[in-house]
Amino acid sequence: MVTAISTQLSLTDSQRQLLWGMSVDDFNAWRRTNDLPVLVDYCQNRLPGFRDWMQEFSISVEDLLDAPHTGEWFKRSQYTHLR
Predict the structure, then answer these.
(1) How far apart are CA 43 and CA 15, in angstroms?
(2) Distance CA 55, CA 75 (A)
(3) Cβ atoms of 5 and 42 closer than 8 Å
(4) Which residues touch 50 (CB under 8 Å, ≥6 apart)?
(5) Least enclosed by CB within 10 Å: which of 8, 30, 64, 70?
(6) Where are the domains positioned within the chain?
(7) DSSP-derived secondary structure letter, 7
């Protein structure tokens, strides 16, 4: 999955350096516009039942793009973030 997604985001070395130098808020804004839509699209088209899950819990693409702490999506924790 990571390979499929990363190949869709082509960044130059200078662009990568700019990303590393961004504030947390600026970086999250960049992610919302650039890589999170690619990730959500991938999930919707490749994960069986993902769209059904979104519909069952009334989760929109905008909800996913606005979700805080997106890195936590892939870690198991004691908290579940549902709207």
Answers:
(1) 26
(2) 23
(3) yes
(4) 43, 44
(5) 8
(6) 2-74
(7) T
CA 25 to chain centre: 15
Dig out the tokens for 21 from the structure: 């130098």
Confidence of residue 82 (pLDDT cuts 50, 70, 90): low
Q: Which residue has the tokens 């805080």?
A: 68
Q: Is the pLDDT of residue 3 over 60?
A: no
Q: What is the pLDDT of residues 43-74, one digit of tens each?
A: 999 999 999 999 998 999 998 998 877 766 66
One-letter amino acid of 31 = R
The whole-model pTM stands at 0.66
pLDDT for the residue numbered 16: 83
